[in-house]
Amino acid sequence: MNPLDWSFPIAVTWLIMFGIIICRAGGTFLLGRLARKGIRRFDRIEKIMSGSKYRRAEDTIDRFGAPVVALSFLTVGLQTVVNLAAGTTGMRYRRYVPALAVGGSLWALIYSTVGFLGFKAVAKAYQAEPGLTVGLALVFVVAIIGLVIGLRKDRTPAEEEASASAN
């Protein structure tokens, strides 16, 4: 079922695709939130989730997770895991919903305009030049990691202390 084969105008196709992704990804996030509530009923798990290291990890995901959520919509097979993780770690709605809207909009745009052709192009590029395709993918991953590290280093020592003392 390729959206390029639909007879709807592009705007209608985009709205349909956007609705699909909001329901799917948002539902996955909500399932994660429900799982978080249910699993905390076990004393052993509650003890782990109340620990300082776990809370620090949750705070990091809450603080820097929104771009990851938005970018996950540009990948294949990672969206569900990222949305579920955002829910189970308790990412705040005020950070999750805008990331879902941005990422979902991009996803809907891609699938309502080029559909699966983009993925076929990457597959064809890999067949023609696997080393170059993998190399470009690695450059992209390293750039994202560098961005995250750079954002982390921009924090002042006072912010670091406040974050550490809160846990």
Automatic annotation (TrEMBL):
InterPro entries: DedA-like, VTT_dom
Keywords, sorted A to Z: Cell membrane, Membrane, Transmembrane, Transmembrane helix
Name of the protein described by the UniProt record: Membrane protein DedA with SNARE-associated domain
Family: Belongs to the DedA family.
Taxonomy, superkingdom: Bacteria
Residue ranges of the TM segments: 6-31, 64-86, 98-119, 131-151
Lineage per the UniProt record: Bacteria, Bacillati, Actinomycetota, Actinomycetes, Micrococcales
Pfam families reported for this sequence: VTT_dom (PF09335)
Organism: Brevibacterium epidermidis
Domain VTT: 12-115
Subcellular location: Cell membrane
Membrane topology: Multi-pass membrane protein
Main location, first listed in the record: membrane
